[in-house]
Each structure stands twice: as C-alpha cells, then as structure tokens.
Design brief:
By secondary structure, the chain is α+β, with helices and mostly antiparallel strands. It contains 4 helices and 11 strands; from the N terminus they run H-E-E-H-H-E-E-E-E-E-H-E-E-E-E. A hairpin with a 7-residue loop joins strand 10 and strand 11.
Length: about 200
C-alpha cells in the first residue's frame, strides 16, 4: 500500500513541478547530470551568486543521481530526466539501510548568511524537489520514503505545499532571508535533503 502511494504521488509532484517556469535570466531546462556522491555529505561554504542592487545571493544546489530507466519504470514516466545514475533498487536498498541516500542532498547542508540575502536553490538533479522552510525537520509528502528515512512525522509545512513550491530539474527557487536566527529547509519529497543556516544582520 505505501509503495503504491509513492507511485501515485511522485508523478503528481513531477507534473506539478514541471509546470513551474524559471524567471527570465534563470536556467529553464535540464542541466548536466549530477555526479554520484558518497553517502557522507561534506559541509561546504555557501556560494555567493550575483544578485540585483549589489546584494549577493546564496546558491544551494539540489542534487540527486536518479537513473531514468529504473526510476521511470518503478514510479512512472518522466520521474527522472537525467542521464544514468543510481538504479531504483539501489536507491531503496541504501535508504533502507542508512535512512538517507547520499547523492540526494542540498549542497551546502549548512551555512551562515545575512538578513537581506536570498537563498537561490538550483535543481541540478533529474527529479523534482522542494526547498521548503520548516520549523523542525520531519517527513515529507511520500509516506513510503518517510518510513524508510525514519521520519514518520510529517513536517506541517510539507502538508501545505503549493504548486510553485515544486522545483523541476534545471529550475530555481528563491527564498528571501528577512530575520535573524536559525533557518531550516528540507525537500518535502526526499526528507533527508536538508539545510540549516544561521542568519545574522
């Protein structure tokens, strides 16, 4: 039953996400495939990108390494639009064993930023993702993946997603930073994809 839910939700997320078009000047089509990373995610410094009025935005890469043949066969046509990668059975085996799959991650997973900057989340993978601010990390919209990732309690923000929250491969999502404190972001499809940032003035 839970696997069937995955099969029904993932294509819906992809269809909704693919309707999101990038603003002028941003990437609008698929980008080069992400490389397969190890299961440990090393923290990296936040990358600054050009922004209007001299402000520097913070680039966050949304990564995955899905194999289109096996992901499309298991979940539905169009689930994965990158070349090659991790087969679906390997993805499930690693998620079952570890509670996460290393190549599916935000880079960097941590950062220090300032009020007035913006996160620009770029989907460099082949699947749809979200970059959702949450009060506390939790599960996402796919119960089967939540169970395997050991996060059965759904983050409330993931239960209230809107169509433009889904980020299709090659597109970006912008989140303005307006207050100090600690911010948490996660993918509401793959809930182990997380970023935690300290915000200062």
């Amino acid at each position: 039953m839970t696997l069937r839910v995955l099969f029904l939700i993932a294509p819906l997320a992809l269809a909704v996400g693919c309707d999101r078009s990038a603003p002028p000047g941003e990437i609008a089509g698929p980008v080069a495939p992400s490389s397969i990373a190890t299961t440990s995610i090393a923290a990296a410094p936040a990358t600054q990108v050009n922004a209007p009025a001299g402000r520097q935005d913070v680039l966050v890469n949304m990564q995955d390494a899905c194999d289109p043949t096996t992901f499309d066969a298991a979940v539905g046509p169009g689930t994965c639009v990158r070349a090659g990668g991790v087969q679906f059975s390997q993805f499930i085996a690693e998620l079952t064993r570890l509670g996460f799959v290393g190549p599916w991650h935000f880079a960097p997973p941590t950062g220090n930023v300032r009020v007035g900057q913006s996160f620009v989340a770029l989907n460099k993978g082949g699947e749809v993702h979200t970059f959702t601010e949450v009060d506390e990390f939790g599960g996402g919209i796919v119960p089967f993946l939540n169970d395997l990732a050991r996060v059965p309690t759904v983050a409330p923000e993931c239960a209230a997603l809107e169509p433009d929250d889904f980020v299709a491969p090659g597109t970006t999502y912008r989140e303005d930073i307006e207050q100090t404190g600690t911010l948490k972001f996660q993918c509401c499809i793959h809930p182990w994809m997380r970023l935690e940032a300290k915000v200062v003035k």
